[in-house]
Amino acid sequence: MTGASAYTDPAVQPGDGGENWTTWGLITRHKVAALVAALLLVLLLVIVVGGILSARPVIVSDSTTCTAWGSANQTQQRAYALRYVREHGPLSSGASDPASVLASINKGCGEAYVNDVEDNITVLQAIRRQY
Questions:
Q1: pLDDT for 39-80, tens place per residue?
Q2: What are the DSSP calls for 76-125, one per residue?
Q3: Of 127, 119, 126, 65, nearest to 92 (Cα)?
């Protein structure tokens, strides 16, 4: 070797269309597609972040509907059952344990679902069988 030479990739011959692919190269060649992809990514992020920020815990009270009762987790349901016994006393059957209150609400809300009035019946009405 007597002169300066540059490294050439034997797999890529001059003029055979071999290109060095880079992300920036793709973006500059396909500006519209890159812009659409970026907008879709931003939209996805907005939807995910919006869902996270708008999620809030369900607070169960006497006026909670059976539909919302079904969305409450077990801890929230048990907390309401304890509060119900503290504020309203025992059930008409005389039971005052949280499990009996939960069973009474679930039975009443089950009836509300059968009658298709779960959005109109509250947990208090479900306990008292007022549907």
A1: 999 999 999 988 877 766 668 899 999 999 988 899 999 999
A2: HHHHHHHHHHHHH-S-TTS--SHHHHHHHHHHHHHHHHHTT-TTT-BHHH
A3: 127
